[in-house]
Amino acid sequence: MTSDPLPFFVYGTLRPGQSNHAAFLHGRVLTEEPAVLPDALLYDGPGYPYVVEEPGPSVHGELVTARPDEYGALLAVLDRLEEYRPGDPRNLYERVERDVVLGGARRVRAWLYVAAPRIAARLRKEGRLIEGGDWRARR
Predict the structure, then answer these.
(1) Which positions fall inside the Gamma-glutamylcyclotransferase AIG2-like domain (predicted)?
(2) Domains along the chain?
């Protein structure tokens, strides 16, 4: 893992216009740009989605760059929101570094929250896939 501040790839309730965007990102970010996470599937959860890494498809979202003075606080609040604690087997999500694609070509390293291994295994067996990988287009 890098020690440099990374942007965040958001794909569900933290996207602009979604339920958690204003509460958690408003005033804390410099930019939000459309981006795609390759090699991932999007599953519907109980009011929020999960990314499960799989070769081939992709997930749509935004790359969010935090204001430098807000980065540490934002990282902590997003970890709490996603119920992520390093090394905890009860995690719903794991925070990982991955490359996302902007504008069809430019790759950028970012933090994102993916389904924890036990959640991903369950979703692969019985989860409801969001066709097209876009949370906003799911309904």
Answers:
(1) 8-136
(2) 8-124 (3.10.490.10)
DSSP, collapsed to helix, strand or coil, labels residue 29 as strand
- Catalytic residue, candidates 82, 83, 126, 131: 82
Residue 63 pLDDT > 80: yes
The DSSP secondary-structure symbol of 118 reads H
Indicate if 62 belongs to the active site: no
Q: Output the pTM of the full model.
A: 0.93
- The DSSP annotation for 59-98 comes to EEEEEEEEPGGGHHHHHHHHHHHTT--TT-TT-SEEEEEE
Choose among 73, 67, 52, 48: nearest CA to 118. Answer: 52
